[in-house]
UniProtKB/TrEMBL annotation, chains A, B:
GO terms for molecular function: [pyruvate dehydrogenase (acetyl-transferring)]-phosphatase activity. The gene is PPM1J. Gene3D superfamilies: PPM-type phosphatase domain. SUPFAM superfamilies: PP2C-like. GO terms for cellular component: mitochondrion. CDD domains: PP2Cc. Residues 1-22 form the signal peptide. Keywords: Signal. This is Protein phosphatase 1J isoform X1. It comes from Lepidothrix coronata.
Length: 494, 494
């Protein structure tokens, strides 16, 4: 998130004890393998699956060496032999503000009074008689203006997804279309399972609702993930005071459930699938430029949110007062093209969207427009809140793994913008193919090697004039985090 | 637009003298070839380029025979040998509510006091010393709830596009990037040409505006087209009272300018390019389903527009009062997936978006969400206006003709939904290839033959059980209009 949030934002408070006091995660997040207590200093917090020793943690936090971190041989291996690597930034913030999480989560059907009677008949009975299913989960969180939101999101987002899915255990395991209406609400203690309610369907349902829209199982999972992001954001809002949670974060999560990948993105991280050398985009970035029209539309309808400081119109540059009455290029919420307008007094305000590419900012403050947290973020030295313009909702794309034959070299790559800023999709695909061909298909380390290589190539090498890539261009000075998830091949789906 | 607007809308008034009193178009719109007067009855109005005799006009208006209309041999030929064909609906409205226009338009630079001094130096000096350029223009307008808006738009939209482009004559012909700021506004009588203003650029411009955004010539043309649609809509609003303009229309326009096609679409017509057998979509449809989130967002922010009759939430079907307290699938403006919510009193209101596919409606009234007109359209027996939810702005897609080698069989097809409802992209491409191969590449009629065949195949043949396609499925009972525009080949670019 280098340069993406103006350094001057009032809330910038690095290293405030983020995460402290939160419910302890399933595994300790570094800071002493095996210790069940909260990490001693949340600022040093790294992903639990890295199982870093205190010494390793100090090395990971060193801006000078920028050592690449990966799960070590002999320690816990990530599911599907997933590769992971990360590196800290070159000094733009005190600690690595990226966070990551990788979990296999059991979604247990919510208990119901009459449920036990049915439990032997339903499918999906797992885990010692508990009814439910598993999902696999990988997620990256790219924090800004403090690490609190990213840390909490990395600890809790999968819990919220699980919580949303619990009401759907019966429905998702039933091949017939999801019921439009449930007699009693999910979560309601009097709720009974769908199967038990057949007798309760009103007789007039079929003729009455000929305009009934079909809803797929897939769209229920998408809705569950969308709402989980919202609940995650609400939790950060509720607990930010008590837990001193600073900042916000982009969130990119891949969920594997019942044969399909659901890739949910809110922010400027990116996911691509590389299949047989072909690149399949699995996300798009949400920035002031890509979401310009949504933001301008909101500003037009709710001008009070702009606090008389901003105009919802976009101009190619700032207007000077002496240019009043001249004609300048502009565009509004309806336009994709540009046109000239006569400059009026109101146009002298700062444009809601300003700048280009990585330098594009909303309200001169933030360079991403979706994500979690940022509830206290304000325009510098003003009382104008940014949050109303941010969306915590992800875009979810679905990839059906069962529709294709996958070979061991087909992968899903998740990366924070530290990767993509200097290494484009095609280059990433090139590295993936290059590294994978140099390892045996059943080598358990090959995906980790890819992740490490991607991080190293994007970080570059420290020279006299800073971190440099092989082509001598500037390497990424941002935090970089990468997952490389194999889509096929022997023994990966365990 | 069959079934796209509830028949009961208050404004449905077929055959009101639409277009009467409007400025006469460059050529009379049927109703007597060669007569310079306004058409005697706008309801019978057909595209001017068809040059229909009164007898032909009566035949074109016959719902029973549904004769296909095309420009006749020996009369004026359309530019580029463009093919065109149309047919009236099977009785859903009194007259054919589609309209079409095809013009070559000269954009003359707006005169300026000092302009004459420069006129010999500039490029683009054409047409007896007048400075400017030409654009080619093809457009389809699919009217609903009256023919007035479609007729006026077919007469005037290209005039508005020309008007918007007039201010850009110098800028578009200058290969350097468009100026961000003009010393005096286009249309301002004191305006001087860009070339004349070089000396007036402030010295501090370069260091001061390092964040200046580059704007392309192409995006100026897009902006001009977008604003032309807005001005067209404003004109319909202004003149609808005096001229009894009823209804609204979808608008699809293709503009060829300086080597590029600009395809602007507002509504549910469609444009595709067929190049070497490959289909390239040049538009997308704007319907309650495709624009759901924009509409829900507006309704959420401006609930007063719903008049307490509608809810911005979408449900898969109507909710019955007895279902209060149960859980039902829903989605809001943030969601693409579905989730369950407990039904509350407010959810019993009618959903803003309701129905599926061709039956999807906004506020139970209209099946398209962009277009021109509809200023008086209200929800049946209410005072709730539809117009705030409609957008008159098109999406403009650009196709650079100079980037590809085109053969005589490569075409751009524009069609109203009467075509696409029964004949999909692939089938249209099949017909195009099939018909073109049976005519010589230099046969001037071949594109007309394609357009006719597309219309005939979509209309079908009248049998005992109505209009039937070759596969015995129901043919389109809607008005059908098709342009087939060749992209290459000898002698077409004249």
């Amino acid at each position: 998130m280098l340069l993406r949030v103006r350094a001057a934002v009032a809330q910038l408070a690095a290293g405030l004890g983020a995460g402290a006091g939160a419910q302890p995660p399933a595994e300790p997040r570094g800071g002493g393998a095996g210790s069940g207590a909260s990490p001693p200093a949340a600022a040093f917090c790294r992903p639990a699956f890295l199982q870093l020793t205190p010494e390793e943690l100090r090395r990971a936090d060193d801006h000078t060496g920028r050592a690449v971190q990966s799960p070590r041989d002999g320690r816990r291996r990530l599911p599907w032999r997933t590769g992971y690597a990360e590196v800290i930034n070159a000094g733009k913030s005190q600690h690595n503000e990226d966070q990551a999480c990788c979990e296999v989560v059991f979604v247990e059907r919510r208990p119901s009074p009459r449920g036990r009677l049915m439990s032997r008949e339903g499918c999906g009975e797992l885990d010692g008689g508990r009814k439910g299913f598993y999902f696999h989960y990988w997620a990256l969180f790219d924090g800004h203006a403090g690490s609190g939101a990213a840390v909490m999101a990395s600890e809790k987002l999968h819990v919220h997804i699980c919580e949303q899915l619990r009401d759907l255990v019966d429905i998702l395991q039933d091949p017939s279309p999801p019921p439009i209406c449930l007699p009693h609400g999910p979560g309601d203690p009097t709720r009974v399972s769908v199967a038990e309610d057949d007798g309760e369907v009103p007789n007039d349902a079929v003729p009455r609702f000929h305009l009934e829209k079909a809803v797929s199982h897939e769209s229920l999972v998408i809705g569950a993930i969308e709402n989980a992001f919202k609940h995650m954001d609400d939790q950060i809002e509720r607990e930010r005071g008590a837990q001193h949670l600073a900042g916000g974060c982009c969130a990119l999560a891949a969920i594997y459930l019942m044969g399909k990948f659901y890739v949910a993105n809110a922010g400027d991280s990116r996911a691509i699938i590389i299949r047989n050398g072909e690149i399949i985009p699995m996300s798009r970035e949400f920035t002031p430029e890509t979401e310009r029209q949504r933001l301008q539309f909101l500003a037009l309808l709710r001008p009070e949110l702009l606090g008389k400081e901003f105009t919802h119109l976009e101009f190619p540059r700032r207007i000077q007062p002496k240019e009043l009455g001249k004609k300048m290029l502009y565009r509004d919420q309806n336009m994709n093209g540009w046109a000239y307008k006569k400059i009026e007094e109101d146009d002298l305000k700062f444009p809601l969207i300003y700048g280009e590419g990585k330098k594009a900012r909303m309200m001169a403050t933030i360079g991403v427009t979706r994500g979690l947290g940022d509830h206290d973020l304000k325009v510098f030295s003003s009382n104008i809140h940014i949050k109303p313009f941010l969306s915590c909702f992800p875009e979810v794309r679905v990839y059906d793994l069962t529709q294709y034959e996958h070979c061991p070299d087909d992968v899903l790559v998740l990366g924070t913008d530290g990767l993509w800023d200097v290494t484009n999709d095609k280059e990433v695909a090139g590295v993936v193919m290059e590294v994978l061909t140099s390892y045996e298909p059943n080598d358990p380390c090959r995906y980790t090697m890819v992740a490490q290589e991607l991080v190293v190539r994007s970080r570059g090498v420290l020279k006299e004039r800073g971190w440099r890539l092989a082509n001598d261009k500037l390497g990424s000075g941002d935090d970089i985090s990468v997952f490389v998830i194999p889509l096929g091949g022997p023994g990966n789906y365990t």
